[in-house]
């Protein structure tokens, strides 16, 4: 029997070894750079193994597995950086979650629509499923990121303990209801459609992995996640120092985290768009935004019991404007059930505006 060792297995194992060697030590520039490469590789490997499991169980469960895997990585990075950070880490969860929302709803969606429109002219998707997902994202973002700016029980853009508990429970409950809708009650709303708007035949470009292969990938996924969490802790001082060194605001650390964890999702959504499976791309984009809020906020709320310092969740006025125009544009994009490169360009410009203002607030 021929033994095949893939990079998706090798990189997490090397990352775990590097974690053991580097833990608790002061690292120079070269080791920091090597660990950064291993961290990125471990993230890519984790999402690859999540994709194998997703391919085994099929859509729309597959998009859900990917979204949850990415959220686990995101929460790990937020918590490790918050623990090691100073006063600027109080808003890290907000900055990361909002960056994830903007990158998914404008970046992933915009890129998918652009790739699909360039290849097929007009992209088509299920407006019922995409509209439901967008409504859930908008509600979650408002409850967790907008309301803290206006509540008065506690001064500043913070929730009181009772308000934070309510927001966490409501976010988790809403996410779980959406998952039930997506995977059980109205599964057909989230499947790809053809040129007539009808559910398309399932397209198989590769044989479904065996149960044994899926279980192996599940185990390797856990190893990769351990490597990501540990290396994030080791790399956190370098990330913060790098952001300060280039003169960017401390809030840009959240953008770095979101860009890192959402890179594999972006690649997966782009591949689906090139196969004219735009609905899968939208499932990935909106599903990741939903999971980023619906799972991250409850996890951070629970962690805030022992995390140092306050937890700032309320958005600034500039970010609320960006969120508002994103929701309006997204509604106009998904309601018709089809889009062209114009809608793609609008979403990508909104992403560019967010990134520019993150650097020059």
UniProtKB/TrEMBL annotation:
Pfam families: Na_Ca_ex (PF01699). It comes from the Bacteria. GO terms for cellular component: plasma membrane. It is a multi-pass membrane protein. It is found in: Membrane. Its main location: membrane. GO terms for molecular function: potassium:proton antiporter activity; sodium:proton antiporter activity. Residues 33-183, 217-359 form the Sodium/calcium exchanger membrane region domain. The chain crosses the membrane at residues 7-24, 30-49, 61-85, 97-118, 130-150, 162-181, 213-232, 252-272, 284-306, 312-335, 342-359. The keyword Transmembrane applies. PANTHER family: SODIUM-POTASSIUM/PROTON ANTIPORTER CHAA, SODIUM-POTASSIUM_PROTON ANTIPORTER CHAA. This is Ionic transporter y4hA. It comes from Actinocatenispora rupis.
């Amino acid at each position: 029997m021929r033994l095949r060792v893939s990079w998706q297995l090798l990189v997490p194992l090397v990352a775990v070894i590097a974690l053991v060697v580097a833990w608790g030590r002061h690292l120079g520039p070269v080791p920091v750079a090597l660990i950064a490469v291993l961290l990125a590789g471990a993230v890519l490997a984790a999402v690859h193994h999540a994709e194998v499991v997703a391919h085994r169980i099929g859509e729309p469960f597959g998009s859900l597995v990917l979204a949850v895997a990415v959220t686990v990585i995101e929460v790990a990075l937020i918590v490790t950086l918050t623990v090691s950070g100073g006063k600027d880490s109080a808003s890290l969860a907000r900055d990361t979650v909002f960056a994830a929302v903007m990158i998914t709803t404008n970046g992933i969606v915009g890129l998918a629509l652009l790739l699909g429109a360039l290849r097929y002219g007009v992209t088509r998707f299920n407006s019922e499923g995409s509209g439901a997902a967008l409504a859930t994202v908008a509600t979650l973002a408002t409850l967790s990121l907008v309301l803290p700016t206006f509540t008065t029980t506690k001064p500043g853009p913070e929730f009181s303990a009772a308000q934070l508990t309510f927001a966490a429970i409501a976010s988790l409950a809403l996410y779980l209801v959406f998952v039930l809708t997506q995977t059980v009650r109205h599964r057909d709303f989230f499947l790809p459609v053809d040129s007539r708007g009808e559910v398309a035949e399932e397209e198989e470009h590769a044989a479904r992995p065996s149960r044994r292969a899926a279980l192996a990938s599940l185990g390797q996924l856990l190893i990769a996640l351990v490597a990501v969490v540990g290396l994030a802790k080791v790399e956190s001082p370098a990330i913060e120092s790098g952001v300060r060194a280039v003169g960017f605001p401390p809030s840009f650390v959240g953008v770095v985290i979101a860009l890192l964890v959402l890179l594999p999702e972006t690649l997966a959504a782009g591949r689906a768009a090139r196969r004219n499976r735009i609905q899968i791309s939208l499932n990935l984009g909106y599903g990741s935004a939903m999971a980023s809020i619906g799972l991250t906020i409850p996890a951070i709320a629970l962690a805030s019991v022992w995390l140092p310092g306050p937890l700032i969740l309320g958005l600034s006025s500039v970010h609320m404007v960006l969120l508002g125009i994103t929701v309006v544009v997204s509604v106009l994009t998904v309601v018709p059930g089809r889009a062209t490169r114009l809608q793609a360009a609008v979403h990508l410009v909104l992403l560019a505006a967010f990134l520019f203002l993150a650097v020059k607030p």
